[in-house]
Amino acid sequence: MSDASLTAAAARRTPRPAALARWLWAVAVLVIIVVAVGGITRLTESGLSITEWRPVSGVLPPTNEADWIAEFEKYKQIPEYKEINLGMTLEGFKAIFFWEWLHRILGRVVGMALLLPLAWFAWRRAIPAGYGWRLFALAALVGLQGAIGWWMVASGLEYRTDVSHFRLAAHLLTALFLLGGLVWTARDLGELARDEGARPARLTGAAIGAIAILFVQLLLGAWVAGLNAGQVANTWPAMNDHFVPEGIDWSGGAWMALTNDPFLIHFLHRWWSWVAALALLLLARALAKRGARHEAGLMVVTVAAQMLLGILTVVTGVSMWIAVLHQVVGAILVAVTAVAVHRQGLKSASANC
């Protein structure tokens, strides 16, 4: 084999952690964009406008009037049209179709943005040892997210006028878990690019506690969205002149109220946010004491912005763009939390070397 061939072969076997990290950060930004469009889709009641799951042929929207009418006729068969949107015009249908179509297209873009570069990096043997399984797991998670998305939509096609808030929560939380995984892995690869002997970060007990508290808040937020619970009160801090709102339905038992009552779920979401904020601010304080002032400051700013947006969402009666921004900053908060707990985990990993 010639020297040139040997050099080319060696180049194909050289790990490229810095390039991999940049790629994952780009995909993470795409995920945040998808979350934003998902929020618009939900708030414009567009999520049930496409009544079939066609992963390949569904890429193209209707291209002529006959195709649009055919899609509209399918929508007319579901309860949402019959009970809520009866009499909607074709132009009105096109408007809601656009957001659901865009949301699905962006989901496919995220999948391609993960799969195609991953295949290229794997062919070039540019993936560092121990990271291949993690990258393939992230790619597989995108496929799972697509399946969960259709499972969510299917819940509103036969007997309901909206999707199940449990399935909506699964869809959103899976997207946020993917976002956290992308950020965490990108940070690990970034450390490896700076130091060939760097070990992956580890979750500490404090980090796990903060993540668990944040998870509860995100779950409650997804339920609020799915039940339109943000609209049951537009005052803050009281809910319709009461600290504990009137109207909570306890007739089905405490568990039924906790998981299905919009008044109670709204109440829990607005006050658990303070528990989540305290946990994250304590995490920021711990990071600042260890010299990670940049991560700590970013955490404080993001938590403050999210709290303010949550209050504004309530007092504006769920203004669409404020509510969308609240969801987007929530996704950014997940990414910032991943950065923060990763930084804390690096301390733990180095201490155990």
TrEMBL record:
Primary site of residence: membrane
Q: What pathway does this protein act in?
A: Porphyrin-containing compound metabolism; heme A biosynthesis; heme A from heme O: step 1/1
Membrane-spanning parts: 20-40, 105-123, 135-153, 165-184, 205-226, 263-284, 296-315, 321-341
EC number(s): the record gives: 1.17.99.9
Q: Does the keyword Iron apply?
A: yes
Q: Where in the cell is it found?
A: Cell membrane; Membrane
Please give, as recorded in its UniProt entry, the membrane topology of this protein: Multi-pass membrane protein
Q: Which UniProt keywords apply?
A: Cell membrane, Heme biosynthesis, Iron, Membrane, Metal-binding, Oxidoreductase, Transmembrane, Transmembrane helix
| Cofactor(s) listed in the protein's UniProt record | heme b
Stated role: Catalyzes the conversion of heme O to heme A by two successive hydroxylations of the methyl group at C8. The first hydroxylation forms heme I, the second hydroxylation results in an unstable dihydroxymethyl group, which spontaneously dehydrates, resulting in the formyl group of heme A.
Give the quaternary structure: Interacts with CtaB.
Q: What is this protein called?
A: Heme A synthase
Gene name, per UniProt, is: ctaA
